[in-house]
């Protein structure tokens, strides 16, 4: 399915080219579910990323936010554990190149591109757009409200419970 002909609703990520792992942008809360809180609902996604059956795309702004959030008291992580989690995630992630001039002040998005009320969420929308991700995975209500508008620009916003990825046993030759 091409990015331009995708349906308005996102029951799952759009089809990636055959044999290509889906390219996903994970918002910070999803990364926390996967790598800090070890949420059972996120286990399949964590496994897919760490076994390279899915690609987690990042850019420096997303990495900076994750570092900042890992230090929050509610995460209850010592500095060494924060570093270990960040290193584990980055070892599995792919740093996506951004266009020249891309910055926190200038996301370089086209006219009419949806803007999120929470400025901290905008980098994830921009990353999904510029990296041509198959989906932005989030539970954030403000981002989920932008699904229809973002879809017009080729960005699928998908809640983690709607995410469909091949299971490990599906990858084993019969």
- State the order of secondary-structure elements, H for helix, E for strand: EHHEHHEHEHHEH
Query: What is the average of the pLDDT values?
Result: 87
Tell me the distance between the termini: 27 Å
Number of strands: 5
Helix fraction? Answer: 25-40%
Please outline the major beta sheet: 5 strands, parallel
Total helical elements:
8
Detail the poorly predicted runs: 1-11, 168-174
**Coarse morphology:** globular
* Largest sheet strand order: 3-2-1-4-5
Strand content: 5-15%
Strand pairing plus helix content: what structural class? alpha/beta
The whole-angstrom Rg is 16 Å
Features:
single chain, 174 residues, alpha/beta, five-stranded parallel β-sheet, 5 strands
Describe this structure in words.
Helices cover 36% and strands 9% of the residues. The chain has a five-stranded parallel sheet with strand order 3-2-1-4-5. It is α/β, with parallel strands linked by helices. The chain has helices at 28-35, 43-50, 60-70, 79-92, 122-130, 141-144, 147-151, 168-171; strands spanning 23-26, 55-58, 93-95, 135-137, 157-158.
Quick description:
With 174 residues, the protein is α/β, with parallel strands linked by helices. Helix content is 36%, strand content 9%.
